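User: Predict structure, ligand zinc ion.
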Amino acid sequence: MMTEQENLTILAIESSCDETAAAVVRGGRNVLSNVISSQIDIHTVYGGVVPEIASRLHCEQINGVIRKALRDAGMSFDDIDVIAVTKGPGLVGALLVGVSEAKALAYALNKPLVGVNHIEGHIAANYITHKELKPPYVCLVVSGGHTHLVAVRDYRSFELIGMTHDDAAGETFDKVARAVGLGYPGGPKVDKAAREGNIHAIEFPRGEVRDHPYDFTFSGLKSAVLNYINLANMKKESINVPDLCASFQESVTESLCVRTINCAKELGIKNVAIAGGVSSNSALRAKMQAECDKLGFNCYYPEPIFCTDNAAMIGSAAYYAYLDGVRDDESLNADPNLALGVR
Ligand code: KG4
Ligand code: ZN
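Assistant: Predicted complex:
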C-alpha cells in the first residue's frame, strides 16, 4: 500500500530563463508529465536570451503549458496536492510570471504553495533518474548561469564548497561557440563538433584560483580561445573547429572533474553527481564516470531532458521542501539572486 507521502502529487512551474515548463510529479521521483515550451528559436535570432522577450513569451505560454501538463498526466486540478514554483535565481521578469501564476493557482484552488530554488531543482533532477540516490553526495551544478560545487549533506542541507569567480561553465561554452560561428546555444554544438576533434591539438590553460582549490575560473580560458581565433584570422589561417572545440572542452571538463573528485575524496563521500545544462555534455559525463570508476565511487547524472531547465526537477525539490514543512504564502516573491540553501 502506498503511503500518503508516496502519493503526494505536485504541479510544478519553472520560468526562470527561456523555457516555460510545467510538470506533475508524484512522490518526489515519479514524473507523470513534463512539458517544456522552449523559446530558443526566438532568442537564437538575437544570439542569446533577451529578458523582456522571455517574460512576454512566458506570459503567453504558461497557461497552455500547465493545461498540457495536467492533460498528459491524465489529471485535473483536483488531483493536485501542492503547487510548486521556481522563485530564483534567474531573470527577474521571467521568474515573476511563474511566481504570479503559482500564487494565483494556490489562492484560487486553496492548495499549499512551495517556492523552490532553481539550483536545488537541478540537483534534485538526479532523484528522478536515480531512484536509489540518497544524500550524502557531492554534486557539481553546471549550467548557463552557475558553476557550483556542492556537498549535499541531506535533502535540504547544502554546503557550497566551490563556485566560479567569473563566467559559468555553460556561458563559456556559449561564448566559444559564438566565436567560432557555431551559434546559440553553444554547448550542444561544441559537444558535437568536439567528437570529431583532437583534445591535444591546442594547449589551452586550466584556470586556477589561488588559495581556493575548489573554485573555478574560465575567463582566462575564454580569452585564450579568443586570442587563438584572432591570431589565426590575422594570419589568414583557417581554424580547425573540431580540434578547437575538443581542446577547449578538454580544459573545461578537466577543471570541473578534478575539483569534484578532489572534493569527494577530501570529504570521504563516495557518491558523485552532476546536474544542470552542461551535465548533458558527453565528455564531462565520460570523464567523471571514468574518474569515479577508478576510485570505486558511484557517478550519477540525470537523463538529458532533466539536465536542461524543466519543471519536473522543481517538483522533485518541492517534494522534499514540502516534507520539511515549507509553506509559502501570498508574500512569495521572485529573487533573481537567491543563493543556494537560503531558507
Ligand atoms: O541548466 P540550463 O538549461 O539553464 C540554466 O539554468 O542556465 O543550462 C543551459 C546551459 C547553456 O549554456 C548550454 O549551452 C549548456 O547548458 N549546455 C551544454 C550542453 N547542453 C547544454 N554545454 C555543454 N555541452 C552540452 N551538451
Ligand atoms: Zn537551469
